[in-house]
Amino acid sequence: MVRLGTDEEALLEVLCTRSPDQLRDITVAYHEAYGRYLENDLISETSKEFTKLVLAILKKEELNTHGKIDYELIDQDVKQLRDAVIGKKSNPEPWIQVLTSRNSDHLNRVLSRLEDQKGEAVDKTIQNNFSGDLRLGLRILVKTIQNTPHFLAQRLHTCMKKNAVVRGIMVARSEEDLLWVRVEFLKLTNLSLYSTIQKEFKEELQLALLALCRSEDG
Length: 218
What we know:
CATH superfamily of the largest domain: Annexin
CATH class of the largest domain: Mainly Alpha
Shape: globular
Organism: Ameiurus melas (Black bullhead)
Structural class: mainly alpha
CATH architecture of the largest domain: Orthogonal Bundle
Number of domains: 2
Mean pLDDT: 91
Strand content: under 5%
InterPro entries: Annexin, Annexin_repeat, Annexin_repeat_CS, Annexin_sf
Family: Belongs to the annexin family.
CATH topology of the largest domain: Annexin V, domain 1
Number of strands: 0
Largest sheet: none
GO molecular function: calcium ion binding; calcium-dependent phospholipid binding; phosphatidylserine binding
Order of helices and strands: HHHHHHHHHHHHH
Protein name: Annexin
Helix content: over 70%
């Protein structure tokens, strides 16, 4: 039986950086490839609140505000997130619900206002109030909401020795936002992604990755 494995970061990378339509396509492709339902396998290989989070991301439906800024909803969401981490035991339910049911523009306004009110980065709030795989999942979800190319650049930098991770990101983003990932990688490392691939990989894999990367930066 083919298993999903236990690489939570790889799982979260895929789930958090795909649109609802792409996630639906992945769900269909998974069933066609393995004859099983992705949702059921996620349930069997994750636990407790982390299961709720990954399923909510998998089935996320972004609220359509038709380009309008809903200030009332922003205030409501900020209050929900803030109130959920008051007291001895934090409640992850509002965090999961809000972060998986709003579009990124709305959520960035919510997260920015939450940071202003609490006087700390959202990432620090999550680290201080949640633990285990749930904390990892919320941190990655927030990072991809705030700046997906930057998150992917960080992932490439830390996983450059992992061929499957690098290949997966390069292929998945080659027709979307790889240019912005390259820009963020250069900011992060002071090295271009192109030259880093030249240094870290050899032969056919190097040529394939360079073709996806397309050109030098800087």
